[in-house]
Amino acid sequence: MAKRMLLIFAHPDDESFALGGTIAKYTEKGVEVTLVAATKGEAGKTAGICKPEEVGLVREQELRRAAKVLGISEVIFLGYRDKEVPFAPPLKIVESLVRIIRDIRPQVIITFGEDGASGHRDHRAIHHFTKAAIKLAQEPVEPEWGKAYTLPRLCYVKPGWKFTKEQLQDVDYVISIAPWAERKWQAISEHRTQMGSRQKFENLEERQKQDYLSREYFRCDQELGALPGRGEDIFQDLERVES
Asked: Where exactly are the structural domains of the chain?
């Protein structure tokens, strides 16, 4: 059975900074990973690399290079503007996501949690749109959008490297990424316009930096996914799930 993972995020670079090691680990193990980006990051910094009006095109190219580094099979852009995802027509964006979910039929979807990890409003919005799409995708409605599909497992990426011990109690999956840390950093480095974000991580105190490059953290939705779990392998117990 082919293993498939669907990532749904807001901007180019979300994938590399948040879970680049996990992506590299699973693609190396043969998992087919598809990435959905709601925007091209048009409101991001240019780092002097391009003109402000060119940053969307440049960040799209950066994402495609990072995806290649990480082994991502396909990148899908939804076409919304950076910082405007909360104002996307709900039915339109949910329809797009339902079609993608029903087409790919992944065992695992990963997106941001309700807090958006950093609190960015685009991150929070894509969380809610993703949940709505997962719920609708399993219902026997809108057959022209594809055959209904019940998602086995939904996970939210969490910035566990800066969590307290108490906060870590809410984490369900801790993925060891040390062997893939170099590829994670290589993917991050492809996002050249986001030099400021890279510098923030480079300036972390040593303990946090080591944690950031050795583990990635996820919370499993215990209600929306049909087969929630806990452990060190996001695909654990999903071997027999039919697509």
From this structure: 4-220
3-state secondary structure of 32: strand
At 242, the pLDDT band (50, 70, 90 cuts) reads low
Structure tokens at 147: 């055959």
178-205: b (≥16 Cβ within 10 Å) or e = eebbebbbbbbbbbbbbbebbeeeeeee
Q: Which CATH number fits domain 4-220: 3.10.129.10, 2.130.10.10, 3.40.50.10320, 3.40.50.360?
A: 3.40.50.10320
Give CA–CA dist 110/108, Å, rounded: 7
Tokens at residue 202, please? Answer: 């480079």
Please report the sign of the dihedral spanned by the C-alpha atoms of residue 174, residue 150, residue 121, residue 12: positive
For residue range 140-150, list pLDDT tens digits in order: 999 999 999 99
pLDDT in tens, 205-228: 888 889 999 999 999 999 999 899
